[in-house]
Structure of Alpha amylase:
Amino acid sequence: MNYPYTGAIIDHFIKAQLTAPKLLAKLTSHLMKYRDSANQTMFNALDSHDTARLLTLAKEDKTLALQTLAFTFLQPGVPSIYYGI
């Protein structure tokens, strides 16, 4: 599970705690820790049985949740949806 990477995405899109440049810096920093082959196989989960659900974090805003998912699907790694959004 690539929680530090997806955590930065949630902090930007859902919690509005990171500006776009800070999000980029965090994602780049995380990607630089591993080889490309490892980054391509990272399991990117925005939520799971261990974390709050994405739609709950988005306060039931489906548009915001879908924007967050769309961004995640554009990232290196394997995006994962845990039982829908």
